[in-house]
Amino acid sequence: MLEQQYEKMGISREVFRQGEEILEGLKSRFAQIDQVAEFNQLKVLGAMQENRVSEACLLGTTGYGYNDVGRDTLEQVYASVFGTEDALVRAQITCGTHALALALFSNLRPGDELLSPVGKPYDTLEEVIGIRQGKGSLREYGITYRQVDLLPNGDFDYEEIKKAVGDKTKMVTIQRSKGYQTRPTLSVTRIGELIRFIKAIKPEVICMVDNCYGEFVETIEPSQVGADLVVGSLIKNPGGGLAPIGGYLAGSRACIEQAAYRLTSPGLGKEVGASLGVLGSFYQGLFLAPTVTAGALKGAIFAANLFERAGFKVVPDSQESRHDIIQAVTLGSPEGVKAFCRGIQMAAPVDSYVTPEAWDMPGYDSQVIMAAGAFVSGSSIELSADGPIRSPYTAYFQGGLTWQHAKLGILTAYQQVKNAGLI
Ligand SMILES: *Cc1c(COP(=O)(O)O)cnc(C)c1O
Fold first, then answer.
1. pLDDT tier for residue 180 given thresholds of 50, 70 and 90
2. Which of 1, 122, 388, 416 is surrounded by the fewest CB atoms within 10 Å?
3. Whole-prediction pTM
């Protein structure tokens, strides 16, 4: 029955059976993922109960947004979930980059230095920091930047980090996910080790973690191992696919206060910022986030195993432990990347009939192809894939609001790569 249903969706019996065989071997890993989701579901529910979320919290305010009980309570819920003193969770934070820029600009002052001890940060942060020329960068405000790369084996370069922490070092930025790099994603435990090392040199330094794509993958978050600030996007993991916009910062009272005065205005801080009509989706999305993240994680592991067995290089590989939801599959040819993305698009609930094409995206030195058929535009907790059309021809994919959709997407991508004669 199931086989026939997949056949109707364009998956051959052979591909379906290969998928089932792979899944047979993944039972214990999937069970582990379900356990993490169960733990995190209780964590989120506990936070909602402890902070007395009520029906009134789901409504919203307009105008200045004074006394927005739903907004204020949600920020307390986030603080409970992340184990922090306070949080800022707002629709006025437009995306992950904005949330990170807000954290940096609000806690740094001219003459301060920012240090990244884990190598180059995410592409969009280059213009925020001023690594690449950008208007209004930290650099323009006289805030300097220093970077220590990871060692070739992926370890922290403790010796160089020790040298890099100086009088001017005010803040450290640690990116949890590998993003579109080849380095390993950092586990929360490793982030904790790094923070302990840095704080031993200079206790007052502010340690910020770019938590994008990492939320709810483990049972603890970086804020529970010493991070002063964790930052992320609501159209990734913590929005559970329902949040239509937004970003969050969770951390110490002092850091959040700085961010609030920067987001709105000195003197106003957290007191203003109407939630409009989005609070219901913020709450419900957070409620769903642990299981949505689990589904995305299963998809990533399934893809790694399926494509690795067909001879492709996958990062993380089929066996590695996971600390974010991103999966890289190196197809080895432009046709491979295009076929992979075509498959992801074909399996989407929205825009399934369109064919993604590679295009000259601003800021990239080669053409990029993207597949997304999402309910929320650009949402990458929904099943999505993209890849630069350059050697070694790697497609990066992530998300899936349900494991069943992720599975169909991956099987369709596999089928397309196979139909192109590449398997
Ligand atoms: C997605 C992402 C960002 C930026 O988020 P946007 O919402 O795309 O602006 C920053 N850092 C990492 C690691 C990310 O994955």
1. confident
2. 1
3. 0.97
